[in-house]
Amino acid sequence: MKKQKNTEAEERNPCLKEQDLTFKCFHDNSFDKEACETAIDNYKLCKSFWYAVQKDRRKQGIRPIMPPLSERDSIKRDFFAKFQQQQ
Questions:
Q1: Which of 22, 23, 34, 62 is deepest in the core (most CB within 10 A)?
Q2: pTM, full prediction
Q3: What GO cellular component term, any one, is given (predicted)?
Q4: Closest by CA position to 49, among listed 37, 28, 67
Q5: Phi and psi at residue 31, in whole multiples of 5°?
Q6: What whole-number distance in Å separates Cα of residue 55 and Cα of residue 46?
Q7: Residues 40 and 22 sit within 8 Å (Cβ to Cβ)
């Protein structure tokens, strides 16, 4: 039953892994923000990325605006391929 619950949470929150890592860092470091700066930045970057994806999909009229789990890996792969070509 727990696996199903995690899948549902992942469906709603594409940055669940980053969020969990941030919470774990806080717990392990007595909630010291400075010690968890990398985890926090990674979580913020993840949220910004998926917000931009949602904004783009909304503009294009693509529904649902949050891509399903099955499409997320290919969306990230395409983004990083384009990013590498620009450099």
A1: 22
A2: 0.85
A3: mitochondrial intermembrane space
A4: 67
A5: 60, 35
A6: 14
A7: yes
Residue that has been written with the tokens 């717990």 in this structure: 27
Q: The tokens of 28 are what?
A: 């392990």
DSSP 8-class letter at 63? S
DSSP state of 23: H
The long-range contacts involving 44-47, CB below 8 angstroms and separated by at least 24 positions, are 46/14, 46/15, 46/18, 47/15
Query: Per-residue pLDDT tens for 29-82?
Result: 999 999 999 999 999 999 999 999 999 999 999 999 999 999 999 999 998 888
Please give the Cα distance from 7 to 44 (Å, whole number).
21
